[in-house]
Specification:
mainly alpha; single chain; 13 helices; about 290 residues
Length: about 290
């Protein structure tokens, strides 16, 4: 995949996510902080997250400066470049980027993102049996990796670089930042655990589908057991050799050796739900094209 072709959409998505979710995340994060009753160690850890976010932004700025120097760029027209970038992205988008660079806003958003990261990776945490120190380092690195694109976006606009007009440069900086974090994760986990984590990440779509099935069955007389959940992740992966979490006819056939009758019916209902979603998207596109 040519990443540069998709970068403008990626950049707009980053801005849109910030615009739509910022107020909600601030409200939720403040409420969570009031209700959590954090210990001194936990407060210290949250403060470290805020400091690390600032360090990431500074490191991203340094990397961007190095790339510009390597390309023979000069900073003499920095004010003009910044004005051009602001005009291209729009005043509202530029305002959202400025808010994302606010340390307190980033701290509150990091709290929410870290909670989501922990939910997605809870099963790996359990299987990896990391020490408390390793787990804390690992969680922080996952947060850092997720924030890489945002950090580079902020650093780019601050230096007058317009990511919409320089997608290759922006994409290279994002990949470079993520590669640095990946190296730190490998060091923290060790080669064996890192390999298991990569496998876990590659099965996220399949796990998402099985998690939905588990939730659908959670209030019935035939809930999905942990053993069945692990087997179904393999079933969904086997029936989607190119990746993804689609429930297809092969999934249904393979699941017959894993699920009971009522559970299999729930899986078929999930298949119909997925198919209906695809049909709805197609109809929406057709209607949009007809106007």
């Amino acid at each position: 995949m040519n990443i540069s072709r998709h970068l403008p959409l990626c950049i707009v998505s980053l801005i849109a996510i910030g615009a739509l979710g910022l107020a909600w995340q601030e409200h939720r994060a403040l409420a969570d902080l009031r209700s959590l009753g954090l210990t001194a160690d936990e407060r210290s850890r949250m403060q470290k997250i805020a400091w690390d976010a600032e360090k990431r932004a500074q490191a991203a700025e340094a990397r961007l400066a190095a790339v510009r120097d390597a390309r023979g760029a000069t900073v003499s027209g920095e004010d003009t470049n910044r004005s051009s970038a602001t005009q291209a992205l729009g005043d509202y988008a530029s305002d959202m980027i400025a808010k994302l660079d606010d340390p307190e806003i980033r701290r509150l958003m990091d709290l929410q993102q870290l909670a989501n990261i922990n939910r997605r990776n809870a099963a790996f945490y359990k299987s990896a049996k990391l020490s408390p120190t390793q787990l804390a380092q690992f969680q922080q690195l996952l947060l850092e990796r997720q924030n890489a694109a945002t950090d580079v976006l902020i650093a780019a606009t601050q230096q007058g670089i317009n990511p919409m007009q320089n997608p290759d440069e922006f994409g290279q900086m994002v990949k470079s930042a993520q590669a640095e974090v990946d190296a730190k994760i490998q060091t923290t986990l060790g080669p064996d655990e890192y390999g298991q984590f990569q496998n876990f990440q590659q099965s996220q779509d399949q796990r998402g589908t099985v998690n939905q099935l588990q939730q659908d069955l959670s209030y019935t007389d035939t809930p999905l057991s942990d053993a069945q959940k692990d087997q179904m992740v393999q079933v969904v992966a086997q029936s989607n050799p190119t990746g993804g979490g689609t429930v297809n006819d092969t999934t249904i056939n393979l699941a017959q050796g894993v699920l009971s009758g009522p559970q299999l019916q729930a899986l078929q209902n999930l298949q119909q739900l997925q198919q209906g979603k695809v049909q709805l998207q197609q109809l929406m596109k057709q209607n949009a094209g007809a106007k």
